[in-house]
Amino acid sequence: MILALTVCVTGNASALEYSTKRQRPQAAGYREIRDRFVRKDFAAAERLSADYLKSHPAGAERADVLYLQAMSLLELGRVEESKDRLRQIDPSYADIHDIEAESTPVIEPPPPPAERPAPPRPTAEEGGFFTVQVGSFASGNNAADLLNKLRDESYDAYIERPSGKRMYRVRVGRLASREEAAALEARLKKDGYPTRIFP
Description:
This protein has 199 residues and is of the alpha+beta class. It contains 6 helices and 6 strands, in the order ββααααβαββαβ. Among the domains are: 30-95, Alpha Horseshoe (Serine Threonine Protein Phosphatase 5, Tetratricopeptide repeat); 130-198, 2-Layer Sandwich (Alpha-Beta Plaits), CATH 3.30.70.1070. Helix content is 37%, strand content 21%. Strand 4 and strand 5 form a beta hairpin. The longest helix is centred in the first third of the chain and has 14 residues, at 42-55.
């Protein structure tokens, strides 16, 4: 609960008014909305999408969330609301007449803006810096989960996949000295991660 203090001033007299307000939980992230949609929990996906759009009216994932909300509404039989969400993504969808709940329209969300590929970075083994490895996985999904967990804890984590190898290495930091790497390794160990310094 949050305690709000409001000061009202009228003429020469002032009065203090106290009120309590419930803190609204943060809106669900895009990943949770997508997961609910994939699991065919359309009611939850629609509700979470609405909350997300209220709290992130100009968010980077707005078009994707609107699309998931439109498809959820369609699955729930709320066709007109679904059309409205599609028109918010692209006004050219105003021509939509024959959407039915049983058939999902073949409308793809707009493609993400094109990014230039970053030039290849040297690996720790090629020299130039030290890094701490906290995991090596055959599954890219497992590596991504660990990456997200580390980033949530404010670590400068990244995934490295050496050419010709099938493993995804989750590493933290690109450090100039072994001493800096050792300090980072100690912090990671304290947080419960297995570690190894490279090179």
